[in-house]
Specification:
This protein is an alpha/beta fold and 451 residues long. The chain folds into 3 domains: 9-131, Rossmann fold (3-Layer(aba) Sandwich); 149-317, P-loop containing nucleotide triphosphate hydrolases (Rossmann fold, 3-Layer(aba) Sandwich), CATH 3.40.50; 323-450, Helicase, Ruva Protein, domain 3. Helices cover 44% and strands 12% of the residues. The protein has 19 helices and 14 strands. The longest helix is centred in the N-terminal third of the chain and has 20 residues, at 112-131. The two termini are 53 Å apart. Residues 398-405, 421-428 and 430-445 have low confidence and may be disordered.
């Protein structure tokens, strides 16, 4: 039995004989195998009989239109890569084509080099999809109900601290850059404490106007200020017996800092406009992305309050310092999106995962979550491919010459070493060389060889 040909096969669906002839010549010049269909009906039948690698589909045809043909092909083969062709590059055409699952679209008359580049890109995408065929989830989301994912040494230390101090009433200070998951840690501390059955209340101190924060935290009496038409309970009263999470504590005003200190020292509050003190039992967990020690030195944050809050310290590392956790975090987000039926994508191509691991993530886990969601929505099949990633992730710019590529290699190598011991350089060469600036890969290799 003859083995199937490894030559890519392109199906051209167009009712114009001259267009089909021209495309045939252009494509065969690159040694592609070309099949033709003069209308949508025959094109759909050809795909059902033997799916080609790529379909070039015209928009305006006699009989079944291009958009109708597109929908029929995608229904027969949801993974079929289709490049839509149109002589009318209107917004509606582009939107409709992409909505129904086209890989991309081109406007007639064609520029042969650009068309061939698009076909080559589609073929690479197909190869990426095949490489993801053996994808298996790397974590069980049921074991990560806390929402905090990571096997790195830094994250294991975070988990250890949560386990050691969750059951106590000690105040906790969580520090770390924006997007590292400080509130997830606060929720986990509450969930594993003896206060778990009581309320958990989160307050963003930076989001509340200065003239309202005292009322928000401690409540107010009726008539205490203009607009106070009724008595209101503050956050501390609302979570009596539970846990209050004060996010962005470094933005709190000196006056409010003094009142927070009193709560921690005396265990009581006083509503705005009130004269009575109210006893409350609340565990305080605070968080900030600022350098509180520097604020204390600058007299912008009370030193006594700092020591009251900083009984237990949890330092969350930025994502760029733990790239080995990126595959697990990506898998966690993809699985949860799929379970919620928000997206069709259920797996990630190895090449896409390599790029996600290499990116430094200035916005940390929050940025990664947004990128995974965006990429899963952009995916036309069940796999997130490199083409689905944002430009800044897919084509990271090396600012400052080839020397700045060293951290990039180091981040990827560290992550791949954990997943594929001994194979990281082979994967690096295959995945990254073509994406580096011209000459950069050789320069970086020479620099590494000298070390």
């Amino acid at each position: 039995m003859a083995e199937p040909s490894s030559v890519p096969r392109i199906l051209v669906i167009d009712d114009d004989n001259e267009v089909r002839y021209s495309l045939n010549r252009v494509l065969t010049s690159q040694h592609y195998e070309v099949q033709e269909a003069p209308n949508g009906e025959e094109g759909v039948a050809a795909v059902k009989k033997q799916p080609p690698d790529v379909v070039l589909l015209d928009n305006r045809m006699t009989g079944m239109s291009g958009l109708e043909t597109l929908q029929h092909i995608r229904a027969a083969n949801p993974k079929q890569l289709i490049i839509f062709m149109t002589a009318f590059g209107t917004a509606q055409t582009a939107i409709e084509a992409m909505k129904f699952g086209a890989y991309d679209y081109v406007v007639k008359p064609f520029d042969p080099p650009k068309l061939l580049a698009l076909v080559a890109s589609a073929l690479r995408t197909q190869a990426d999809s095949k490489s993801a065929a053996g994808y298996k989830p790397v974590i069980n989301t049921d074991e990560h109900k806390e929402g905090i994912v990571g096997a790195s040494a830094a994250m294991q230390q975070v988990f250890k601290i949560i386990g050691q101090f969750a059951a106590s009433d000690a105040s906790v200070m969580i520090t770390g850059e924006s997007g590292t998951g400080k509130e997830l840690v606060a929720r986990s501390l509450h969930r594993h404490s003896h206060r778990a059955a009581k309320p958990y209340v989160a307050v963003n101190c930076a989001a509340i106007p200065e003239n309202l924060i005292e009322s928000e935290l401690f409540g107010h009496e009726r008539g205490s200020f203009t607009g106070a038409t009724a008595q209101r309970l503050g956050k501390f009263e609302q979570c009596d017996g539970g846990t209050i999470f004060l996010d962005e504590i470094g933005d709190m005003t000196p006056t409010t800092q003094t009142k927070i200190l009193r709560v921690l020292q005396e265990g009581d509050i006083q509503r705005v406009g009130g004269v009575d003190t109210i006893k409350v039992s609340v565990r305080v967990v605070a968080a900030t992305n600022k350098d509180l020690e520097q604020l204390v030195r600058e007299k912008k944050f009370r030193e006594d309050l700092y020591y009251r809050l900083n009984v237990v310290r949890v330092k969350l590392p930025p994502l760029r310092e733990r790239p080995e956790d990126v595959p697990q975090i990506v898998d966690f987000f993809v699985q949860n999106l799929a379970k919620a039926k928000k997206v069709k994508a259920r797996k990630v191509a190895p090449e896409a995962l390599t790029l996600l691991t290499a990116y430094p993530w200035p916005g940390n886990v929050r940025e990664l979550e947004n990128v995974v969601y965006r990429s899963a929505v952009a995916a036309t099949g069940d796999t997130i491919l490199p083409k689905d990633l944002p430009d800044e992730v897919r084509e990271p710019k090396a600012a400052g010459g080839t020397d700045s590529l060293e951290p990039l290699f180091d981040r990827i190598a560290k992550a791949l070493r954990a997943q594929h011991p001994g194979a990281e350089m082979t994967i690096l060469n295959a995945a990254m060389t073509s994406r580096l600036p011209e000459g950069a890969s050789k320069a970086a290799a020479k620099k590494r060889a000298k070390k």
